[in-house]
Amino acid sequence: MIKTRIAPSPTGNLHIGTARTALFNYLYAKNQKGIFAIRIEDTDIVRSTQESEQDIIEGLEWLGLIPDEGVSIKGEIGELGPYRQSQRAHIYKPYLEQLIQSGDAFWCNLSEQEIDILKQQADDKSEQFVLRSPYRDKKIKPSQESVLRFKVSDTKISFEDKIKGFIEFDTSLLGDFVIAKNLDYPLYNFVVVIDDELMQITHIIRGDDHIANTPKQILINQALGFTRKNFAHLPLILAPDKSKMSKRFGATSIREYREQGYLPEALINFLALLGWNEGNDREYYTLGEIIEKFSLKRVQKSGAIFNIQKLDSINSHYIKQLSPEKQIELGTQYLIQNRFDIKKWNERQLKSIIQLEINRIKKFADIGKEISFLWKQPEYNPDILAFKAMTKEDSITSLEWSYQLVYTIEESQFDTIEFIIKEAIQKDNKQMGEILWPLRVALSGLEKSPSPFEIIAIIGKEETLKRIQYAQNILKK
RNA sequence: GGCCUUGUCGUCUAGUCCGGUCAGGACGCCAGGUUUUCAUCCUGGUAACACGGGUUCGAAUCCCGUCGAGGCUACCA
Predict the structure, then answer these.
(1) B5 C1' to A101 CA distance, Å
(2) pTM across the whole model
């Protein structure tokens, strides 16, 4: 049985890159009928927060990446916990002692200044600096200043990366690295090895910024006699300037996208296609479909730029796919968020407003941007009431015709108002434009807007007649 | 600097393993159609094999070199 894990550090909200790494771990685990686990890497007590952890696990579940094991919104799942590193200090200690015992790790009293001097000396001789601590064979008693380093011997470490292929490192270029500040404070490269072993992780799928850490972890893994792990290093998601996605780039947290009204299925689809494809032209997949088709072999090797326009396009596709009920639910929610007074409308009207917006928005936060005219009589320049070469008098006549027509139509017939009006236009030998343009502008006050039929159905007969009269009045001025 | 990774339209990518269709699709952009207008939708167009050698009848694909990009180089993760 294979097992993957995502091991986020709770030092900020769920990052888009973390989400994608989680997604690929989830996809691989599910495709292989294995287990997807979440472990919280909060060894850095200073930067880790409870809120970040909460945001991360909530965000992952919102995306549908529900863990089989580890930390979840319902608490911890599984027998191999605790799944927060901050609660595992007692577990790490014996392994640290084992490494000291075996001579693979040693206490080192080198100060920062002393290391700087060694660096300088190497520099002066224009040699490559590799730290070989003078304490590596000394077995000193640790003091307050001591740190525990791994004794690196000269060898070659290689592994077959499931995405990048064969990768080899020469450890003679690797310094004696620190694995713990003291017996109670082990560092990342060490704990990750212990946890992955104890939690029986079989496949480590992570960002390719971790490639350089891999030989260190393999060294520790071997010294402890642990089982060999499979590695797969994902290419990074890049900002438009090809740099690592950071604060400089707009929205980097899943929370921000969620709040803007991006759908989880859109985000999943987008993130999956950012670095993976089935080998054909298909571009829309549900999470289940990606699971079925997923393979690490088809993961891209180079970084991908995060293109918000593509996300928008995918999101608007999924918005249109939503059931009418869901569209109304989310639409209403965002209308309220955007401070529109929805109490003005009954259920039917609200439904119409949202339906009118569905084709126009890329994300739900866009809702309501250009429809404030529905709420109140708009102010506008009367010149725009004229269709093409119409004179003021033509516009007034046109509006009068519309007024008389709407006056005769019952609100109960508003479902078919488009048909009624168009039929009347034909019958009276009018042009569509000469009637519909002035009418629409009278109702919306805009040169570009939804159709008059949709607006009438929402604002109702009384308001429609009022606005037509208003338009006639400002034309007469 | 060193080590590692990586290079196909502006962007995401198919094709590369196993050389041989005008290098395909999507997003964007442009044009046309539909519509009173906008949006939606439909049709079409624009645009790429980083560069230089080599192997070959033939190279995006194989080999060598160059250049570019990114990551790491912490007592962070």
Answers:
(1) 36
(2) 0.92
